[in-house]
Amino acid sequence: MAADRRIPVFLLLLIAAAPLRAEVLEGLYVFSEQGSEFSPCGEGRFLHVTGEAELMGQLRSAYKRVTARPHESVYVWLDGKSERAGKEVPVDYDGSFRVKALRLLRRRIPADCILPVDPNADDLDYLFGMIERTPGESGLFESEPLHGRLRALLGNDYSILLDNMDIQGPLSRAGGLVYAEGTGTGSGEAAVLMAAPKLDRLVVILITGGSMKEYAEDDESLPPPPEVRRFLETVLGKF
Predict the structure, then answer these.
(1) HEC states along 124-144?
(2) Predicted confidence (pLDDT) per residue in 117-141, tens digit
(3) How many domains is the chain partitioned into structurally?
(4) What pTM does this model have?
(5) Which long-range contacts (CB under 8 A, 24 or more apart) does 130-133 make?
(6) Domain range enclosing 200
(7) Whether the predicted pLDDT of 184 surpasses 60
(8) Which residue from 91, 84, 41 is spatially nearest to 200, judged by alpha carbons?
(9) Residues 84 and 157 in one domain
């Protein structure tokens, strides 16, 4: 039997009237100070969200009311129009979505609205499908090609990464960057994994005994988002 996708009236959040020719799409929405993004259910596209200032402010307020942590994905129904990537769309996105109305925003995500995950992909795009789960829950470090690339990047220090990720946070997203933070059981042990799938770039930061070391593929570093900087400052500040 097909799932009942009717939305109870009390869940509907009508912010503006939608134009007659607007698309009505359901998917995952994330707000950050760097920008808003929307991924239609099951498509694997990441769209930069734009709209009138008043509507974007209302969307931001609704998002903050239901979320518990930064960059958390929520389920939305949006009216608007999607456009292909162009000069005005940040390079990390597949295009843009100009929102005209928000019909629904809630924290619970339906089981059939997930990002496609292909662990056998030749690049790192599949990592987007592991967001909001810890590496242990998703099998992140065992997935390919990430596992092989981490082994090549870290060499014998790969075991330190696993030890320093004993207590894990979920894989999160900041723009085109995905990252995971963790700490070890010993004092001053921590690790950060950062990946930029669209740039095909991977960076690992290991902290042991208060000393930090960065590993970057082809010596191409990545700027850590504010959440990662605060995490590193907190760990290093204890020494």
Answers:
(1) CHHHHHHCCCCHHHHCHHHCC
(2) 555 555 888 888 888 889 998 899 9
(3) 2
(4) 0.57
(5) 130/171, 130/178, 131/73, 131/170, 131/171, 131/172, 131/173, 131/178, 132/72, 132/73, 132/170, 132/171, 132/172, 133/170, 133/171
(6) 125-236
(7) yes
(8) 91
(9) no
